[in-house]
Amino acid sequence: MKNNWKDYDKNRPIRHKFYRNKKWVKIRNDYFNSKMGMCERCYQKGYIVNGVIVHHKEYITDQDFINWNIDKLFAWKNLELLCMKCHNKEHKTEKGYRDNVIIDEETGKVKIIDKEE
């Protein structure tokens, strides 16, 4: 039996439901297109880098998902488009770096890879 964080994350299905929600997918795609697919942080530094993740600037808690906190979940002012490098840097400072996260290039979805294989 694997021993990882997914085994104990009872709210994971709630988050997955949100990220598959039609409203979120539309907002995510509209926001992505409004930034012309470029990482906002890299662009501010003068670099043109493809963005891959529409990131919530103010972190979303499980309670935000459960209570459907529209201001945090859907507000453009709480979003930014990031490349994988910038997204990893963001989460390294707050939650610790995870090297088992990749972006599926076909779907654009974040995937967790099994490091035990």
Automatic annotation (TrEMBL):
Recorded family membership: Belongs to the HNH nuclease family.
GO molecular function annotation: endonuclease activity; hydrolase activity; nucleic acid binding; zinc ion binding
Keywords per UniProt: Endonuclease, Hydrolase, Nuclease
Any one of the GO CC terms: cytosol
Protein known as: Putative HNH nuclease YajD
The organism's place on the tree of life at top rank: Bacteria
Pfam families: HNH (PF01844)
Residue ranges annotated for the HNH domain, each copy included: 39-92
InterPro entries, per the entry: HNH
